[in-house]
Design a protein that fits this description.
alpha+beta, three-stranded mixed sheet, 3 strands, 11% helix
């Protein structure tokens, strides 16, 4: 019984996932690129992208740092742009 209590107590000590701040504003100008959603990822080659940009594909390792000025382009398995947001 004592071991069970110790295990339960240790379970409470695990690190929780960091919570990202809610994105209420378009701090990076993502709305300027919303017309690209649904297009092939190669459309990004024809767009002038100024400032920090991150292209995220399925299975990519990404850092957990939140940068409100960075535009994230999320690419789907079929190589189309599925979402654009800040962070």
């Amino acid at each position: 019984m004592k071991r069970m209590i110790a295990l339960i107590a240790l379970a409470g000590c695990t690190a929780a996932e960091p919570v990202l701040p809610p994105q209420l504003e378009d701090t990076c100008g993502a709305r300027d690129y919303e017309n690209l959603i649904g297009q092939d990822a190669t459309a990004l080659e024809r767009v002038l992208l100024l400032g920090p940009v991150r292209v995220i594909r399925p299975g990519d390792a990404v850092t957990m740092d939140f940068r409100p000025d960075r535009v994230n382009f999320k690419i789907s398995d079929d190589e189309t742009i599925r979402a654009i947001d800040c962070g």
